[in-house]
Design brief:
CATH architecture: Alpha-Beta Barrel
CATH topology: TIM Barrel
Strand content: 15-25%
Number of strands: 8
CATH superfamily: Metal-dependent hydrolases
Largest sheet: 8 strands, parallel
Distance between the termini: 40 Å
Radius of gyration: 17 Å
Strand order of the largest sheet: 1-2-3-4-5-6-7-8
Number of helices: 10
Helix content: 40-55%
Number of domains: 1
């Protein structure tokens, strides 16, 4: 098991937390400090993922208030019966802000809510259509739904091209291989640093480096040495340290590679930075 307890945080330039939830109540009144701690750990950019339409104005305001913060919106599969039904046209209408970088998270989760399977499939298809028509990528959530997920993603690609990241990847090797074959990305979360996650580390180690992102999914899934406590964007440095060891790279090399991957997948974030450099 790679040692993730003591990465050299000062040697991690341009890390990106590609998936966090700064709008969650866990972070109320503390976002400025979270962003400052992240920057001190080398995390210069982060994407806050909005999964509630009521929170979208707040997520946009966070992006507008912090240069390194970008945002998304999508209907989480666990919320499909709680959130308003939304069409691809409506999703695209919400996406025109310069710091809106992706649709999602969307996807399938049959672990907690198998009874909403059909509603989840309908919602995911609408998000895929929005990605196809807009050129913006998808942020995909998959849990206990590998077969259906592979099928629906592949069906979408037969209709029209789109890009996606399998966020917080913890599914099996078949879905990983299928996603990579489709040209998608895998995102490494704190799960990859857990002692019992060797299978997940093996999946990442076998994947092309140019298809890897890192994330926290904070406030969840804090990596060691913070496991069991609230996660936050600064801790992506610990997950990145595991990734660097898996690929036999220095921390700086892994940070640079995953940041370049982020820019390819999220061109609007890359363009925003270039336009202000």
């Amino acid at each position: 098991m790679p040692d993730a307890t003591s990465p050299d945080l000062t040697a991690l330039p341009e890390l990106v937390d590609s998936h966090c939830h700064l709008d969650f109540a866990d972070f109320n009144g503390e976002v400025d400090q979270l962003v400052a701690r992240a920057r001190a750990a080398g995390v210069t950019r982060m994407v806050t993922i909005c999964t509630r339409i009521a929170n979208l104005p707040y997520c946009q305001s966070l992006a507008e208030s912090h240069p390194g913060v970008f945002f998304t919106y999508g209907v989480h599969p666990l919320h499909v019966t709680e959130e308003p039904k939304i069409t691809a046209t409506e999703l695209i209408a919400l996406s025109h802000h310069e710091k809106f970088v992706a649709f999602g998270e969307t996807g399938l989760d049959f672990h907690y809510t198998p009874e909403t399977r059909e509603a989840q499939l309908i919602s995911l298809r609408e998000h895929i259509t929005a990605a196809q028509q807009s050129g913006l990528p998808l942020v995909i959530h998959a849990r206990n739904a590998d077969e259906d997920m592979e099928k629906i993603l592949a069906e979408g690609l037969k209709e029209a091209p789109y890009s996606a990241v399998m966020h917080c990847f913890s599914s099996g090797p078949r879905l990983a291989g299928a996603a990579l074959e489709m040209g998608f990305y895998l995102s490494m979360s704190g799960i990859a640093a857990f002692p019992k996650s060797q299978e997940i580390r093996d999946i990442f180690a076998a994947a092309p480096l140019e298809r890897i992102l890192v994330e926290t999914d904070s406030p969840y899934l804090a990596p060691p040495p913070h496991r069991g406590r609230r996660n936050e964007p600064a801790y992506v440095a610990h997950t990145a340290a595991v990734g660097a060891r898996l690929y036999g790279l220095s921390a700086a090399e892994f940070a640079r590679a995953t940041s370049e991957n982020f820019d390819r997948l999220f061109p609007r974030a890359a363009d925003w930075g270039r336009n202000r450099s």
